[in-house]
Fold:
Amino acid sequence: MTDRFRIKFGPFASPRAGILVVFCDDGLRLGAATRAALGPAAALVARAAAADRFKGKLAATLDIAAPADLKADRLVVVGLGKPKDLKPSDALTLGGAAIGKVPAAAKEITMLAEYPAGAMDADAVADLALGARLRAYAFDRYKTKRKEDEERPDAVALTIGTADPAAARRAFATRAALADGVVLARDLVNEPPNVLFPDAFARRSTALRRLGVAVEVFDARKLRQLGMGALLAVGQGSVHESRAVVMRWNGGRKGDKPLAFLGKGVCFDTGGISIKPAQSMEDMKGDMAGAACVTGLMQALAARKAKVNAVGLIGLVENMPDGKAQRPGDIITTLSKQTVEVINTDAEGRLVLADLLHYTAQRFKPKLMIDLATLTGAIIVALGQEVAGMFANDDKLAEQLTKAGIATGERVWRMPLGPEYDKLIDSKFADMKNTGGRHGGAITAAQFLQRFVGKTPWAHLDIAGTAMGSPQSEINRSWASGFGVRLLDRFVEDFYER
Ligand code: BES
Ligand code: MN
Ligand code: ZN
Structure:
């Protein structure tokens, strides 16, 4: 969706109209510049807080309409909690919480980015803005009518008052690129499956060429030539041809091995012949969230000119029941030449990724590979919807991802791999089978993927719980969260940019 927010940074000042947002701690203390901007209206905060039982807890809000002594139409006070307990990812949450209190009809918002003890640093100010933008996202492309309370102006001016507007502007430039990446990922996941079928997704990814990303689209003929028998088997029952897309961003040193990001892009997963029950099947339009994340990430890296070489690969298919669809019992030959007995056609994501992983390792000899996939319902049973499952063959990589997860609030939790699990996916007839039974379903899926990785450091993120229909947060009110874009952008920035 096009962005309605126009974000500017300026000095601390009291606005002449619109909504004024300020921050206070759990003692209702305000910063000095905030007190100056409020003037006599500062006294309203304590009175309204008492009346509303507002205690200044983190992300709690106090809403004061038509404040006397202020030109602004409304004063929103956002709590910071105990300043010493603030985490790096909290500024984002605060920006989101503030926008959550602003009525949809608002055209003009001013935020004073100040802690009681003094100015917020440029990164925190920029995070406030990013949180605001992500919170304001709504996917309403297909609504032809709006309820009265959903009426929204086409443009909203958000001015953030800060001690150093120039530094905040610089810090926000990279966040704006990141926001565009998250928004792209959310849009792709929210799109309906009749609109976003494999070729439509592939065509959208070619828009990244404008940012200097080299984009190759493989059609079904090319995929057959390459020998991607597993990926093709998944898509063979669909009237929509399968695709794979390779996106390359070379912002690093010439000759430096790239980081590789891979995404499961099942544009719709009916389960195939092993068909899913009707209940919530519509959610399987989001089974391409891994691919959406990779595309959003590549967009963000290119837009902020990240000093890194990165490749993004996505496998785009539709899993349908049909006369031409694969059957349980079929034995397919993957690109790696390993054979797979298909026990359940609903365990399709690992087939798509098997070929992508092998292809990526062979062609790019990458520094590392990270795949993202809405791979199993089992990971939702294990971890719920707040944290993604992480599997890795490399401790350093696992640690870096864990750190990036804590820094961004997009958390991952490491799960085990190990040869003990191999016997669950051994097959009577082929090299392996594509399901390992009910026990440890997320683990056997990851163990299956590992057979196509080789020696490259690799991590698999199972985002089935976090990418869609996940708990609404202060920075996301949409069905699709865009999970993974901020995580991996941070991972790249903190550990791999020169
Ligand atoms: N796309 C699903 C996993 C999924 C389930 C994602 C719910 C998001 C929400 C995947 O292709 C699938 O169907 N997995 C099966 C594997 C089983 C057949 C071994 C599952 O998890 O039940
Ligand atoms: Mn499936
Ligand atoms: Zn699936």
